[in-house]
Amino acid sequence: MSTHKRIDLICVVVIACALILTILFMNGEKLGIVPIVDEDSPYTEKTEHFTSNDLNGSWSTESATKIILEGDTATVSGKGAYALDGNVVIAGAGYYVLEGELSDGSIIVDAYNTSKVWILLNGVSIYCSDDAAFIVDQAEKVFLTLAEGTDNFLESGEEYSSDALSDNTNAAVFAKDDLTINGSGSLTVTAAYRHGIAAKDDLAITGGTICITAPVDGIRVNDSFCFREADLQITAGDEGAVQENPEELFYVESGTITIDSGDDAVNAVSDVVIDGGLMTLNAVDDGVHSDASLTVNGGTVLITKCYEGLEAQTVTLAGGDVTVYPEDDGVNASGSYIWISGGTLTIINQTGTDADGLDSNGDIYISGGDVRISLLNSGSNSAIDYASESGGVCEIRGGTVVAAGSSQMAEQFDSTSSQCSILYTYQSGVQSGTTVSVADTEGNELLTWEVPCSFSAVSLSCPEMIVGETCYMVIGDSQEEIILEAVSTTYGDAQPGGFGGSMDVGQMQRPEQGSAPTEEGESDGRQQPAEGEMPGFAEGSSPEGEAQGEMPGFAEGETPEEFAGGGAPGESRGFAGQEQDVTEEEETTASNKVSLSELDSSVWIWLGISAAVVIAGLLIAFFYRRGRL
């Protein structure tokens, strides 16, 4: 009877609790509730390149199943695995430790599609004559860990069985699901048939020393390839590392990658981002190729041999140290632009006859960094080439540049630049090994380089070159006084495209120490843009038709450094050296404060509906108790 009397109150309490739970579930993160997620699940949206399990190469083996490989069979101590026809099958989630030798068989992971499998290679040698030595048929994710101080070997034969071919197996290590290689030991992968490692989903390498030899591709990944803190060495008959999904990413954070390939060293359909590490590449075709964008934020990229060095739709160099020895172009942007805002770039081409240092089918922007380009004084070799014939621009707003090549197709920085530059051309060439420099009126060198190749044209620019001031162009033992009458000036005795100016190389004189500089208080002549105006653009205009004040080629409010990528989504990178106005702690505190106006609009709709239901329920209960219903 008491329950009947309180039924209306009970209903109100239950509905109120339901409403509160609705708000919490729909806005839990805004209210400070931390959700528990499986960061390794393929259904979890990735916000970082690596999960905690990817980085854990020293997990506990205390409860792991032990598998001892013994020639053509194996002994299994524990659950989840068994030996079958010369192979070892791992059929359940959990931890496994392998050691010993398998003379002609495979390690096969065939578990549920929700299973995570950890496998420690503790000194194994596995050879399979007609299939992959290591196979992931099914799992959610497999972690292949290389035990500290151990050497491990996976090798496959030249001809695969009909069963293997019907399953599209094409590598010595073949994974249909996500695969991570970590730890601190070594792994040697030798493929006699096609590829070294092929992954149909994601491949992460976060530790160990991995040596791969393959007749076709060293690594072939369908989805993302993410690399850090490992030593990877690839020798491949075709391409070194291949990535095939345009929606994913080829990412290098740190570590060492050495590739010797018969085609591209790196070939990605997706964006390529290099944040750090050391990459040494020897390629018959491209050093690093992307069908989308290529960004270098840090690290060292040394391309000792290639046809073209870096090639992508857009190329952004925001940091790092890049050196390229190409036969053709050093950096090629087949789409819209090349943007250099930091780091160092050195391109030396000692063999090309129709090559470019920087080659953009659109624009070139240099706002920082140090660029050195040297191409032979041969044919139409051009140190800098852009789409000037179709409205493209080449602007310099910062950094230092020495770019030497042939005068036949030489192009100068645009007059819309905000930093001064000089293009010097010669009828007769200058021999290789000649030092080129710019000095101020006191004889101080502002910019200098011993140019490796012969040349007949050289472009120079540095921040100390200022409109209206005098500098001295020094080539070997000769020099000439130059007054920088404009942002972009041309001198020399060659006349490609109507270049003006002249010089008598034999009569150039070095300035004496103590020559008078510009009078104190005199305007330096540097062209300063009006407040809020993008430097170098005519009033009301900007490259590619963008609105005045907007960075060319970038989304509204986006800077070139932000475009360069390399950080987690939502992470503020800003300009190098720029101080942030808000501290990390203040940002965290602010992000955890939530007002009613920030709740999802759907919550208010459901709250309104629920409130109406509550009121209706109360009215029904009231009239029911009064005996009117």
Short structural description:
The chain is mainly β and 629 residues long.
Structure keywords:
flat, 629 residues, single chain, 14-stranded mixed beta sheet
Tell me about this structure.
The chain is mainly β and 629 residues long. 11% of the residues lie in helices and 40% in strands. It contains 7 helices and 44 strands. Helix 2 runs antiparallel to helix 7. The longest helix has 25 residues, at 601-625. Residues 496-594 have low confidence and may be disordered.
Q: Give the terminus-to-terminus CA distance.
A: 19 Å
Give unreliable regions as ranges.
Answer: 496-594
Question: What percent of residues adopt helix (DSSP H or I)?
Answer: 10-25%
**Biggest beta sheet attributes:** 18 strands, parallel, barrel
- Count of helices? 7
The gross shape turns out to be flat
Please count the beta strands (DSSP E, at least 2 residues each): 44
User: Which value, in Å, is the CA radius of gyration?
Assistant: 32 Å
> Structural class of the helices, strands and pairings?
mainly beta
Percent of sequence in beta strands: 35-45%
Average pLDDT figure? 83
